[in-house]
Amino acid sequence: MGNWKMHGGLEANAKLLADLRAGAGILADYCTLAVCAPFPYLAQVSSLLDGSAVSWGAQDVSAHEKGAYTGEVSASMLNDFACAWVLVGHSERRAMHAETDELVADKAKAALAAGLTPVVCVGETLQEQDAGQTLEVIQRQLDPVLALGAEAVSRLVVAYEPVWAIGTGRSATPAQAQDVHAAIRARLAAVNAAQVRVLYGGSVKADNAASLFAMPDIDGALVGGASLVADEFLRIAAA
Ligand code: PGA
What we know:
- By secondary structure, this protein is an alpha/beta fold.
- The chain has eleven helices and eight strands.
- An eight-stranded parallel β-sheet has the order 1-2-3-4-5-6-7-8.
- Helix 10 runs parallel beside helix 11 (230-238).
- The radius of gyration is 17 Å and the shape is globular.
- Residues 3, 161, 166-167, 201-204, 222-226 line the site of 2-phosphoglycolic acid (PGA).
């Protein structure tokens, strides 16, 4: 799954989407491919990817259904553009928009209610990792989401993205990521949702994707920078 973040433009997107569309065909027999685009481009993405092997989604959603929430975008609006996915609780939103664990769970709930699949992002900062708090932080972030109940949890995706690995070129090692993924899997299993897909994110590139995907509890990747280059993104999917 690609996370374009605040990148793109009509012209650049058209080329990227055409390249993804052309390259995705055979890969889609083996994995799910998706891109999460900025809101203004969802119409373009839906029209250029319609009928292709690549699905799409947004990078955030309001916890509210509708109303006086200037600047927010509801899950039903995302449905109007046939989004399948929506990221919730990306670390950039937690850090720069003060999103709490509870708000992230509310967003996941709103997405599920509209039939979208929320991709719940969790991950510790470098400071937290250094203090040995990784699993504690992940558990705190997941708890309100797991409290949504087994049925809800079985319909979402979790993305583990250590904040220190995002956009830094310094990915977690496969073993480091696997340890955290195994802990997440155990938490999911405790609510009968062990089959939920757990993606790793943080400096995933074509070069390190295969070693990450070889880990038993890493089911896929949430890819930032490398998702803006079609060939790189498709090579990650091929891995
Ligand atoms: P990155 O970003 O792949 O550029 O590190 C990942 C993400 O933030 O989703």
